[in-house]
Design goal:
- The protein is an alpha+beta fold.
- It is 14% helix and 28% strand.
- It has helices spanning 45-49, 51-64, 212-218, 223-230, and strands at residues 31-33, 69-72, 76-77, 94-97, 100-103, 109-111, 116-124, 131-140, 143-152, 165-166, 171-174, 187-193, 206-208.
- The protein has an 8-stranded mixed beta sheet, with no helix packed on it. Strands 3-4-13 form a 3-stranded antiparallel beta sheet, with no helix packed on it.
- Strand 8 and strand 9 form a beta hairpin.
- The longest helix is centred in the first third of the chain and has 14 residues, at 51-64.
Length: 235
C-alpha cells in the first residue's frame, strides 16, 4: 500500500470536550511506560515466542510498578514484531509502531471519548494481527479523523453496523483475550488516522521504517486525546 504524505498532522481540539478511553483515577492509579525496543534487554526471545509467557511478563511488570496500566509505543521502533511473520515483507520488515498501546487485563472496558459513528469493524484473525477491531469516525471542529481500536474482545463486534452512532462516554468494547486479539498479551492498540484510503476494519499499525514520515503524517500522536484519560500520569 502506498500512503501519500499527509499535511494535516495536528489535531484541532480547541474547545472540544474529550472524554476517557479507559477508567483511570490519576489520584490513586499508576501508569507505567513500557519500552518495547531493543534497548529493553529484559524482553528475551523465550518471552516473545510464547503468548502466555509474554502475558505473564507484562502482568509482572505492571505489578512490580504498582501500575493499573502500561502505556507507550507511538513512533517506537520495536523488535518484538519479529515474533510474527505478519510483519515481514520481502523488501523490509515492518517494525515502527504507529499507535499507542494501553496494557491491562482482558475485559477492561473501552470508552468512546467523543461522539462518533462506526466507520468499519473486522475480526483480523491472524497470529500477530489486531484480532477484533473497531474503527470509529469523528468530526471535531470540522476536522474528520478516525480512531482504530485493536485487540478487542470478539463480542465487542456484536451488533455493530457501519454508520451506527456511538455516543461520547459509551463503553463500546473490551480488551480481548489472546485467542481473540491476535495472540498478544491483553491490551488496546489506539491509533488515530486521517485518511483511511480503501481500508475497512483494518489499517497498518506498524510500518516499514523507510516509510515512517508518510505513515506518521497520516497517524498523528494520540497523546492530545489520551492526556484527558491519564491526566498528569501521562508522560
Amino acid at each position: 500500500m502506498q500512503v501519500a504524505g499527509q499535511r494535516e498532522t495536528q489535531l484541532n481540539l480547541e474547545g472540544i470536550a474529550i472524554g476517557k478511553v479507559v477508567d483511570f483515577d490519576p489520584q490513586s492509579d499508576q501508569l507505567y511506560t513500557f519500552d518495547l525496543t531493543a534497548n529493553n534487554t529484559a524482553i528475551t526471545l523465550e518471552i516473545l515466542e510464547d503468548t502466555t509467557t509474554f502475558s505473564t511478563w507484562v502482568a509482572d511488570e505492571l505489578s512490580a510498578h504498582s501500575a493499573r496500566y502500561g502505556i507507550g509505543g507511538y513512533d517506537e521502533h520495536r523488535t518484538i514484531y519479529a515474533r510474527s511473520h505478519h510483519f515481514d515483507t520481502a523488501e523490509e520488515p515492518r517494525r515502527l509502531h504507529l499507535g499507542v498501546d494501553i496494557w491491562g487485563p482482558a475485559g477492561t472496558p473501552v470508552y468512546n471519548f467523543h461522539d462518533a459513528v462506526v466507520h468499519s469493524f473486522k475480526f483480523n484473525d491472524q497470529y500477530g494481527d489486531y484480532g477484533a477491531t473497531i474503527i470509529l469516525k469523528y468530526n471535531l471542529n470540522g476536522q474528520v479523523f478516525h480512531a482504530l481500536y485493536g485487540h478487542l474482545s470478539l463480542d465487542s463486534l456484536t451488533g455493530l453496523e457501519e454508520g451506527q452512532a456511538i455516543p461520547a462516554g459509551k463503553a463500546f468494547a473490551r480488551f480481548g483475550i489472546p485467542e481473540e486479539n491476535g495472540f498478544w498479551p491483553p491490551h488496546l492498540h489506539f491509533q488515530l488516522i486521517f485518511n483511511m484510503y480503501a481500508f475497512k476494519g483494518d489499517y497498518p499499525g506498524v510500518c516499514q521504517y523507510s516509510k515512517k514520515a508518510a505513515f506518521l503524517g497520516n497517524s498523528p500522536d494520540p497523546a492530545p486525546i489520551l492526556k484527558h484519560t491519564f491526566k498528569s500520569a501521562l508522560i
